[in-house]
Amino acid sequence: MSLKRKTQEFVERREQILQGGGETAIRKQQAMGKMTARERVIGLLDEDSFQEYDLFAQHEGRDFDMDKKELPGDGVITGTGKIYGSPLCIFAQDFTVAGGSLGLMHARKITKIMDHALKLKVPLIGINDSGGARVQEGVNSLAGYGEIFYRNTLASGVIPQISVILGPCAGGAVYSPALTDFVFVVDNISKMFITGPEVIKTVLGEEISMEELGGARIHSSVTGNAHFFANSEQECFEQIKTLISYIPWNNSQKAKRLRPRNPKNSFRIDEIVPVDPKQPYDVRNVIRAIADGSEFFEIMENFAQNLVIGYARMNGQTVGFVANQPIYLAGVLDVDSSDKAARFIRFCDAFNIPLITLVDLPGYLPGVDQEHAGVIRHGAKVLYAYSEATVPRITVILRKAYGGGYIAMNSRHLNADIVFAWPSAEIAVMGPEGAANIIFRKEITTADDPEKMRKQKIKEYKDKFANPYVAAAKGYVDAVIEPGETRKFLLHALEVLETKDVPRPQRKHGCIPL
Amino acid sequence: MDHEEKDLEIFSFEGTDYKTKLTDKFRKHQPYQPEDPTKIKAQIPGTMLKVLVREGQYINPSKLLFILEAMKMKNKVFSTVSGRIKKIHIIEGQIVTKNQLLLELGEPESLLKKLLEKSPPKPPKPPKPPKPVKEKRNKKDSKASLSK
User: Fold this and answer.
1) Which of A221, A279, A431 sits opposite B15 (nearest CB)?
2) Domain boundaries, chain A
3) Do A34 and A95 form a contact (C-beta atoms < 8 A)?
4) End-to-end CA distance of chain A
5) How far apart are the first and last CA of chain B?
6) B13 and A330 in contact by Cβ < 8 A?
7) What is the ipTM of this complex?
8) Do residues A417 and A394 touch, judged by C-beta distance below 8 A?
9) Which domains does chain B have, with CATH numbers?
10) Is residue B139's pLDDT more than 50?
């Protein structure tokens, strides 16, 4: 056989496999409003940048007539590629092949590309669209999952790991995304749960649709399992690309520096923030007023909205913002927002992304449900994450900073590198109203006109403590700055802190309260 | 501004009224209600296999009340308090949802009286345990346990 003939034969074989599960299955996939696995990989990566691995892999299932079945690529596409020129590894489960079910070879392809990502120290993107374990392969399928989870864990904090849920991802399969850093979901397409509606109905008698149980909206607003919500796969890919542009390839590098830009003039700090701490404003606009090009890439936008996290650039360099959001619940910390903040802080710390914290909160949210949900344990995560972080940590206290919330939000006491405060900052154990009621209880209750006395005492307390100068006098605030000059001071601080080097005692790992 | 005045509500925090929006989760949160020890509820959803007590009967703590099949197990539901059964809200074969009321005991006063009658030297105690139902998971299937 000539080389030409052999090449011809190869091309035919390849074409066969590139069809995935075949026309009927592809039409079914399209009918569900979904792209095929191959379309997704091509659509997400830079043009012509995909190098496929293991196209000719074949499953080894023998039981239940599986040996008579051809499963092209064993239901998963794996390889390397680029996004904005940054190399990365990727896998995409192919629902058109045996429902994207995970058998041993399918898992081997995934673990191989994961090992590759860890070796190359580049990000890993996993596109999940699978009916779950390939039941015919029995325990081999479970072994496959376990081997994936193990690698997710080893890679954690070394390379960024991104999971994209573009179809069902149920049962044990959910734990790979759960172990990764960022989970992307798409409305009406993503479905994630440990046990599905059918099982819940038979075991518990509860009826619920897949969408209500584990759809994209639920995971991005209620459970906090998803970080990014999109209305279409295309929008989702744009979000992934943007994220990749903000984060480094691995933990020994910094994110790519872009050309510095000034914020837009339309965001003016003095017009955004009311001086009265009882009046709300959208803290994202403060970030936009500070950041390069007024661009802010928010993470977990719909979950625990009382705290905002996300990436922006300062002088072209990626920074992570953590900010209390006064427009929701006055910006309190609670169970969900604590989890949200702590996880983000730890990712930034692992991947050399400096942190800027904007403080405006009345404290931790009171309530039986909060206490019973473990706000002590969850709140502790914020303290832990900040204290542990060795990346540059800068704090700006905008207005109220009361009680435990003040300490938690990267205060000087948790060894922040520099703490700025605006003249509107109020650093105290609690708000003037609450404090006056406690300190002057006797004077107020015994006064001829208690209400008048109360007002007078509130004013007294306000005059004394509702400012940044008491804390500044103690060195708890390093500098009081004009709001309009915040960016200037932050840029200087970031520049100075570039050489920051904090040694930590030898240990295997800390024991964060989980 | 991304927010409109009409979306804002008053959120009271340590004596201060903040103008802010409420999150969905906050809005949905249920006010805390202490558990009523005279009302025994299902702590797990399932199917009621057996009702082992009747209305009007006086029961003591650790009295076996029901066998509730849930999570493929036959769970024994015991009483943790004493009192006279006022009403049983469930019949055998019925599907039970979580927190469904199964059984109601008489008023706490009668409980107290009964306690006093039983142990006259002791000072009266209020009816105590906060947990009304104790569930034990039990592999009740006798054949299965025999074959072990």
Assistant:
1) A431
2) 3-246, 269-431+466-499, 432-465
3) yes
4) 63
5) 70
6) yes
7) 0.81
8) yes
9) 41-111 (2.40.50.100)
10) no
Gap between the Cα atoms of A34 and A370, Å rounded? 39
Half-sphere exposure of B54 (CA within 13 A, CB side): 0
Residue found by looking up tokens 């191959």 in the block:
A38
CA distance B93 to chain A (A): 13
For residues B62 and A284, which has the higher predicted lDDT (pLDDT)? A284
Contact between residue B63 and residue B88 where contact means Cβ atoms under 8 Å apart: no
Q: Looking at the complex, does the CB of residue A332 fall below 8 Å from at least one CB of chain B?
A: yes
Could you give phi then psi for residue A61, rounded to 5 degrees?
-65, 135
Out of A97-106, A207-216, A439-448, B136-145, least confident range: B136-145
**Domains A3-246 and A269-431+466-499 agree in fold:** yes
Average pLDDT over chain A reads 95
CA A140 – CA A129 distance, rounded (Å): 19
pLDDT tens-place string over residues A329-351:
999 999 999 999 999 999 999 99
Cβ of A480: how many Cβ atoms within 10 Å?
16
Beta carbons within 10 angstroms of residue A27's beta carbon: 10
Alpha carbon distance A405, A359 (integer Å): 9
State whether residue B88 is helix, strand or coil: strand
CATH 3.30.70.1520, applies to A3-246? no
Structure tokens at A477: 């605030």
For residue A162, pLDDT over 90 is answered with yes
Alpha-carbon gap, residue A144 to A107, rounded angstroms: 5
Inter-chain residue contact A336 with B25, CB threshold 8 Å? yes
Residue A400, both tokens:
């109220």
The alpha-carbon gap from B117 to the nearest alpha carbon of chain A, in Å, equals 37
Burial of A449 (0-12, 13-18, 19+ CB in 10 A): exposed
Confidence class of residue A306 from pLDDT cuts 50, 70 and 90?
A: very high
> Across the interface, do B32 and A329 touch by the CB < 8 Å criterion?
no
Q: What kind of fold does domain A269-431+466-499 have according to CATH?
A: 2-enoyl-CoA Hydratase; Chain A, domain 1 (3.90.226)
Confirm if A338 and A384 have CB atoms less than 8 A apart.
no
Amino acid identity, position B20: T
Cβ–Cβ pairs < 8 A, chains A and B: 94
**DSSP-assigned letter for residue A253:** S
What confidence tens digit (pLDDT) does each residue in B68-98 have?
998 778 999 998 888 999 999 999 999 888 8
SS3 A194: coil
Q: B6 vs A357, which has greater pLDDT?
A: A357
**How far from chain centre, in Å, is Cα B63?**
15
